[in-house]
Design a protein that fits this description.
By secondary structure, the chain is of the alpha+beta class. The chain contains 4 helices and 5 strands. The longest helix has 23 residues.
């Protein structure tokens, strides 16, 4: 199974503008720019999209792990705070912090922590930072 997202950009870093889209159409031509990424202007940016993807993936993984342990979540809420820092001459995502609130009948805190830890380690988006990244690059015209 493969899924894709795409981006378009025109112009320089600070003066340019771009859009991001997803295969499903959930995002279609959503604008982003330097100011939405680094200056707090309303709009999207890659880090919040990674945060949403991580929160969604982790929460689904935890639901599956809970079910395997004979538990069903009444409610799981996850927030993923993605930190981007200046490192050397560029920027890096230096950490992601997951904040989970869950209501799981029949689970005690120790078991909940154990199963949440398994979901954090095992969800595909958690693993993406260790993934092989390949590329094809074509210069046009």
């Amino acid at each position: 199974m493969k899924r894709h997202g795409s981006a378009e950009w025109s112009g320089g870093l600070k003066s340019g503008r771009g859009t991001v889209s997803t295969e499903s159409g959930a995002l279609e031509g959503k604008p982003y720019a330097f100011n939405t990424r680094f200056e707090g202007v309303k709009g999207t940016n890659p880090e919040e999209l990674i945060g949403a993807a991580h929160a969604g993936c982790f929460t689904m993984a935890l639901s599956n792990i809970l079910e395997g342990a004979g538990l069903t979540a009444e409610k799981l809420e996850t927030r993923a705070d993605v930190t981007i820092d200046k490192v050397g001459d560029g920027f890096e995502i230096t950490k992601i912090h997951l904040t989970l609130r869950g209501k799981v009948p029949g689970a005690d805190d120790a078991r909940f922590q154990e199963l949440a830890g398994k979901a954090k380690a095992g969800c595909p988006v958690s693993k993406v930072l260790r993934a092989e990244i390949s590329m094809d690059a074509t210069l046009e015209g």
